[in-house]
Hints:
The chain is mainly beta. The chain has helices at 19-22, 39-48, 278-281, 284-287, 381-386, 403-407; strands at residues 24-29, 33-34, 60-64, 71-75, 87-94, 100-104, 123-128, 133-138, 141-142, 145-146, 151-156, 161-167, 179-186, 196-202, 207-212, 217-221, 234-237, 240-243, 248-253, 262-267, 274-277, 299-300, 312-314, 319-324, 329-334, 346-351, 359-366, 372-379, 396-402.
Amino acid sequence: MRQLCWTILLFLGISGSRPYEKLKIIYSWKSLEFAFPNEVAKFVAIKNGDFIPGAPLPIDVDVYTGGTQPKVFISIPRFQNGVPVTLGYVTDQVSPEGNPIIAPYPNWSYNMLGTSCDTIISVYRMQIDECGRLWVLDTGKISDKRICPPKLHVFSLETNKLINQYKFPLDQTKEDSLFVTVAVDVRDPFHGCVDTFAYIADVTGFGLLVYDYRNMRSWRISNNLFYPYPPFGTFHIKGDSFDLMDGILGLALGPMNNGDRILYFHSLASRVEAWVPTSVIRNYTLFQDHDDAAARSFVPFAKERSSQSAAEAMDRNGVLFFGLMSDLAIGCWNSKLYAEYGGSHNEVLVTNPETLQFPSGLKIVNSKTNRQELWVLTVSFQKYMSGSINSNETNFRIQAAFVDELVRGTKCNTIPSTDPQRISKYGK
Length: 428
């Protein structure tokens, strides 16, 4: 088993390599396997149905680089039975079948069901902020059944201890709500990290929630742009097709500019990207009595992507990265170069029909040397939807690349340009 260390990404930036070679596979799985305390515990879990080999499906990845060794986190939602760990990290151990072993985070008991609503029920996505905190968004659901209220768990990655837990009020959720994506906005990274907001996508309740960490309160926002677009509810991925009318899912925060940031967002069943200033959605009094307030502050771009997209992230230079489902690719848009998103302003950075099926998790990670890295988790989701996942094939991959290597020679490099369209009207 390769050991993940500080030099691993030096391998990614080989000078002169072709674009698809710049995105390197760090880990891959045919099926997920877990660090059970012993073989007896694994046998009991299988016998009881707590672990159904082949059932767990990863959705997201993030990387903590603040310790002596980097730690790669992975989330595995419980949208079906047989998932023993919903939040874990990749160990340096490997199974006889060649699958990297995943250990539960922070421990087994916190991933265990049936004890209390203080544990983690089911996680689609999480985010590590610049203050060394892991924000874990818990749906509170197993399959379609509500077990507990949706909540945020916030861990210190220095101590691996829970430092905050917030349960969202019932009146801010709908019966079919599913909280799947979190974007963390730290306003004071050098002054205690208390002034922090989290933005949460309710993919099936078609809403955006805002959590105010300092004041321990949240509010719900409604807008027509959070809904799915019916013409894009059918997905075509490598010969397979499935229908999924999911709403707002992708969230990405732009760099700080004059005290404000832009939140970019899109629905899964959509090719439209939209944006809103965070100064608007952070205004608690604006939405306290009217969750559909400030409707015109949410703005869609006029042009579209080439296909649907799930996860997205923006780097500190204002470059937006996103998966392209039908294109089996990673795309980008340079907000410093082009005022408008979409069409010819977007660039396809990497295309690979084998390794870029359904990019579900995507993060920008700052290395120990402050170099930006793009990390992507891909999953054969179309095979899951069609019931054709084969445990003898590679189904899940974590890939990574240096951002500067990936965008070199493309529209998404950040070298000043004389292009007349480079002046952005969106405050970046």
